[in-house]
Design a protein that fits this description.
mainly alpha; 2 domains; 2 strands; Transposase of ISThsp7, IS1634 family
């Protein structure tokens, strides 16, 4: 091995060529935009998968704007909840967490002014997930 060639080779390791048609964009902005594409791709995958969004069938600009706003808010809420979940469970996804809560039901018994509400029996994992995702404020969880 020739040390000079090894050193020259190491200098080129891990380099990528990025270019943009936007000449106003700085190198740092270009790198940030490039690496953010992964988050955008994951957002579309989430929208088409767990959120089960249907194809767009709107023609009016007002309806398209409304649809885009609802989609954006949905993805924002999804990523916010997933971030809260990942602080406690780094390897768990929100889709997985919601799937494990699929059997949780609110039971309401009573008539007139006397109504009793409770949830179906929860395991420890479900209780923790409901606490993390803010479900304790909505469901009467023991």
């Amino acid at each position: 091995m020739v040390p000079e060639k090894v050193e020259a080779d190491e200098l080129r390791d891990g380099r990528r060529l990025l270019f943009s048609t936007d000449v106003e964009m700085s190198a740092a902005e270009m790198c940030r935009a490039y690496f953010e594409r992964d988050a955008i791709e994951k957002s579309f995958r989430t929208a088409k998968g767990p959120m089960s969004l249907a194809p767009i069938r709107y023609r009016s600009e007002v309806r398209l704007d409304a649809y885009a706003t609802v989609l954006y808010l949905g993805l924002l809420l999804w990523s916010w909840e997933e971030r809260k979940l990942r602080k406690k469970f780094p390897s768990r996804t929100l889709e997985d967490a919601l799937w494990s809560l699929r059997d949780v039901s609110l039971v309401r018994i009573g008539s007139g002014k006397t109504v009793r509400e409770f949830t179906t029996r929860l395991n420890d994992d479900q209780k923790e997930l409901l606490r993390l995702l803010g479900g304790k404020g909505v469901l009467p969880v023991p």
